[in-house]
Amino acid sequence: MERETARKEEKEGDLLLAPILPPLLLPSRFLALSLLPWARVREAPVARVDGRDVLSLVMRISRFTLVLAGSIVIAGGSAACGANSGSKFDGGNGGSGSSFVTGSSGIAAGTSGSASLSQNNGDASQPGDEAGSLAITTSASAIDVTYGQQSPTVTAIASINGVQVPASFTVDRGELGSIDAATGVFTPTGAVGGVVTIVATFSGQVATASVSITVHWVQSGADADAGTGGAADAGGGLGGNGGVGGEGPGAAPDPATITALGTTPVADPSLQFLYPYDQTVWPRGLLAPLLQWSTTQSYDAVSIHIQESAFEYQGYFASTATPFVHHPVPQAAWDALAYSNGGEAVKVTLVFAAGGVAYGPLTQTWTFAPTSLTGTVYYNSYGTNLAHNYCCTLGGAEFGGATLAIRHGATSPVLVAGSDSECRVCHSVSADGSRLVTGQGESANYFGSSAYDLGTLAETSLSPEDGRFNWAALYPDGTFLLANNAPIAGAGFTQPTQLIAVGDGGIVPSTGLPPTLQVGSPVFSPDGKHVAFNFYGGAGSDGGAADGTSLAMMDYDAATSTFSNFQILYTPPLGTSVWPSFLPTGAAVIFELETVSDGSYWGETRKCPGSATCSNPGTQAQLWWVDVATKRAAPLASLNGATYLPTAPGTGHPDDTVLNYDPTVNPVAGGGYAWVVFTSRRLYGNIATIDPYESDPRYFDLTSSPTTKKLWVAAIDLNAAPGTDPSHPAFYLPAQELLAGNSRGYWVVDACEANGTTCLTGDQCCGGYCSEVDGGLVCSDQPPSCSTEFDKCTQTSQCCGAAQGMQCIGGRCATVSPPVPR
Fold this sequence. Notes:
Immunoglobulin-like, 52 strands
């Protein structure tokens, strides 16, 4: 029922915006992506503007940006855009008019300012009516809009040889506004800023003009009507307020304090920005982050100023706790910021007030990727409050070991595998999101396993119970796996590795596997054509003996079930290569380089599995990547936190750059990046600050002090040169359980939808395409004229944006580099 309701709301949104879309241009999903990598937009809480919500508006974007160039060449049309500079909060008309005239030679500049054109009311008998080139004049080339307001409007006039003609008007970006097809009056939504292209069509000709929209928002205190006091910002559930912790947005400061926050701040040497990190790359649609800082001052208010080309936010908030050391970005402001961004840098400035004096500033620069990634994160929790199958915590309460999922728009995780009587951890997930295989904690030696259909969550017990299913490499469709041989907890398959059917546990016939090969933590590439692993035991096809430390790979042909091309990718001079994961391109592998082991289990992140006072050192590791073609490996320095991570030596955090583990890469690229989720025991600002290895609830009180064992996400450049660092600073994965230890996140696409089902992107569809039908988007197996981002493909030429650099990656069209900032 929930899903059907969501689909009904989405369909209504399509109908709302359908009149403003060009009738001959199909809607695309260039931005129409799921709200989170772990969520779907259509079910997310959003801010509403005059009955329409921000994200629903964003989801209905046309393919105009991919088709426009060809249309202009055919019709002799052209486009240009006006610029808008400065910081304005008056909401008035911020730009002068502009005129765009097209002809056979290309673009010819027209007049600026308001047009004064005669009208002929479509009387084609008047001379010159169709003999010249169609042009558009707009009453403004740039406007400033107050958030939530739908003014000022812009009027577009179409003409030929200076004579107004009754053209039909459309716009390319429905999230920015709508236009009256007959009058040419454009009305902004007041929700999102950016550049909108107005398209005039008349007598077979097309002309375009651009209008820049800058949205401004000044806010004082939480405002429920604006979406900043609702579920997305509050809700102290398992994920903490807003899914990120803290106390939620503060109240409005008094007028004197707001005045003080606007004065020149005094430097506070103790001020430090703890989280987020400078230069973070964010995807769109994320739950808003919790801004965190350290100081010896006692502040009573904060000013949050965030600015980019098309959106400016200024928020004033009173302190929410003592000491006042964190505050969220309001969710509605975060959404507007993300969807207004055109690739340009985002500047963040915090100023604080105490006793009528301003202090600071703290500043950072962020980047938004033009994508909201699809899928769900499934992860292990060994101290969850969603299941109670183990006794006991330090305080005597039962707790759980289970597999959880971070899903759509919620601020807390949900239970997927496990119950109050059954422990379900040590899991693997197929890249297509159809199947999860996890260990049965109540079985002998933990060697039993279960398979879950992720569409229905139906559980099937697997046999034999000899550990062959646990920690294995699931093939992308989940039907079979390559068994793990390394002695990871819950795994005991000591025979040479084999392909094993998930259904009955039988050996799947194959050729090319070295007869004695034993692999550790294996993984298939998203397209199923390669498998990477730790060269744990036996020998390779060349007879070379395993060393237990190297990273190796093989090719796999599913049509003949043949392995070939055994090769060593990287042999570390120190440490062990574990937990590999392919980039969506299949051209590189990210892996964990474990440099210090806890001395107990292979590939663990812990310090001591069975005692609160063990003398074993804690496991230390960093994430690296290796280019398959050149075999050049390098650390992911920015992801690991080199040069910028805060330290707290007194709590066991002198160097958190060596506390990064268990990477898995989203199988679908987005916005020019690959996206990796990983386990880290680093400080989470001032929210999770205890010793990094204090994560076992049997020995440490985690009921009020969150463990730092958490999931993080980082963007990875798809087109980086081998040997360089393609990573960016990581961000905390929202909605994970705050008071539990979380690890081994598998980030995969959701189980596919049948033809005819409402969709947003092609990767949601079993048929591969998300196509327009009667003004809405539904799953289809019929190839369109060209595939947009996330639609199915077999070669790059099938992608709509191939001429602009889009490529077919892993069977989906994807951009390979971030856009050039406007």
